[in-house]
């Protein structure tokens, strides 16, 4: 019975998609399924005989827990689930459409929206191609111009005052703040998922209490510094190189629907401590200097301290929520990224101001449990 219900739901979804494509004038497009990621979205490339290809995005609204209501209390967010606690958009198509419109208005390259029905979780997008930063670098492309353009695009985003609400093409989405609770919810997933992956016992109550006390200043600094529009998942698998465009428009952007108002270090640490590809330490230093040169208003030392602290928090989140959880859910390919992320975490924790956190990891996560 369960299998037949799944098959029926799949069939109903496919019919809904076919009707949407017909309304968009794309009933005759040849559909090519594209590789997915860790999300609940699915993508297809739509091939047309006499026109450029397009991208078909399918995000069933029921596949995710609820996003964060703008005025929800912390207790309400926790009760709604991880998406609300972390202020994730739950894959909502209206978030993608509204955010894409804001990015394009800044002269940046987000896909144009050809058709969208957010209530159904469907959209057709401009096809920006396949030249992901990660693919180009793996094939031997020199990374310097790619990273310089990506950092310059960050500076462009951060030069604009972030709006309270994003609006484009009939879609409206609040730009919430990456606040203390959202940072804590992400970081705390390390406590939940890492012991399960490596066979450690659950962390004792006193260790959890110490964890909270040590991370609290980091989360507080992240919230206080939340002042710029932030893509939130800004790394080499979500950036495309568009060399025929000019300036910062050469950086094509994907997967930005979870955008928030956040600390300006947040997107940079995703880019420069990329969990999926190696970024040389000298490249990281050079790009941080490039960003700081573009932002003379920032206190350099304070910014770099926040960068290290938030990068440590993010590494713990990725190890827990993304890599350990996804591996336990049957996606062992994420194991390959864990050693690199541990190296980032340990490098950040070497900062003198994070010595308490380093000592916590040294006491509770032995070396053999860090891979």
- Counting copies of identical and different chains, the oligomeric state is single chain
Helix proportion of residues, in percent? Answer: 40-55%
Return Rg in Å.
21 Å
Strand order of the main beta sheet, please? 1-2-3-5-4
Q: Write down the overall mean pLDDT.
A: 95
Task: Give the percentage of residues in beta strands.
Answer: 5-15%
Broad structural category? alpha+beta
Question: Given the structure, what is the number of helices?
Answer: 14
Encode the helix/strand succession as letters. HEEEHHHEEHHEEHHHEEEEHHHHH
The number of strands is: 11
Separation of termini? 41 Å
Largest sheet: 5 strands, antiparallel
Shape verdict = globular
Q: Low-confidence segments, ≥5 residues, pLDDT <50?
A: none
Keywords:
371 residues, alpha+beta, 5-stranded antiparallel beta sheet, 14 helices, 11 strands, globular
Produce the secondary structure layout:
Layout: H1 2-23, E1 30-33, E2 42-48, E3 51-58, H2 74-80, H3 82-86, H4 93-105, E4 113-117, E5 122-126, H5 133-138, H6 143-159, E6 165-168, E7 171-174, H7 180-187, H8 189-198, H9 205-224, E8 228-230, E9 239-241, E10 251-253, E11 260-262, H10 265-272, H11 281-294, H12 300-328, H13 338-349, H14 355-364
Antiparallel strand pairs: 1-2, 2-3, 3-5, 4-5, 6-7, 8-11, 9-10
């Amino acid at each position: 019975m369960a299998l037949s219900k799944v098959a029926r739901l799949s069939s109903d979804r496919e019919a809904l998609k076919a009707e949407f494509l017909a309304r968009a004038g794309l009933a005759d497009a040849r559909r090519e399924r594209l590789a997915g990621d860790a999300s609940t979205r699915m993508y297809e490339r739509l091939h047309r005989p006499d026109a450029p290809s397009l991208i078909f995005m399918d995000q069933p609204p029921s596949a995710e827990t609820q996003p964060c209501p703008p005025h929800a209390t912390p207790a309400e967010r926790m009760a709604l689930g991880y998406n609300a606690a972390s202020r994730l958009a739950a894959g909502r198509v209206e978030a993608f459409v509204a955010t894409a419109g804001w990015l394009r208005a800044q002269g940046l390259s987000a896909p144009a929206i050809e058709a969208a029905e957010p209530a159904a979780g469907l959209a057709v997008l401009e096809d920006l191609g396949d030249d992901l930063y990660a693919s180009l670098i793996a094939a031997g492309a020199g990374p310097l111009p790619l990273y310089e353009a990506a950092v310059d695009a960050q500076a462009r985003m951060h030069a604009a005052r972030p709006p309270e609400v994003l609006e484009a093409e009939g879609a409206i989405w609040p730009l919430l703040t990456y606040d203390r609770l959202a940072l804590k919810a992400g970081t705390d997933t390390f406590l939940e998922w890492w012991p399960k992956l490596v066979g450690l016992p659950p962390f004792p109550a006193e260790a959890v209490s110490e964890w909270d006390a040590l991370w609290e200043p980091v989360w507080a600094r992240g919230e206080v510094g939340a002042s710029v529009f932030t893509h939130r998942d800004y790394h080499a698998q979500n950036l495309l190189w568009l060399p025929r465009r000019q300036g910062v428009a050469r950086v094509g952007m994907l997967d930005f629907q979870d955008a928030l108002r956040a600390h300006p270090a947040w997107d940079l640490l995703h880019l420069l401590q990329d969990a999926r590809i190696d970024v040389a330490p000298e490249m990281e230093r050079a790009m941080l200097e490039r960003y700081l040169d573009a932002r003379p208003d920032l206190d350099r030392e304070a910014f770099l301290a926040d960068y290290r602290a938030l990068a440590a928090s993010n590494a713990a989140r990725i190890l827990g929520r993304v890599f350990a959880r996804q591996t336990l859910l049957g996606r062992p390919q994420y194991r390959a990224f864990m050693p690199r992320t541990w190296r980032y975490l340990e490098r950040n924790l070497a900062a003198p101001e994070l010595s308490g956190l380093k000592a916590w990891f040294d006491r509770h996560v032995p070396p053999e449990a860090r891979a």
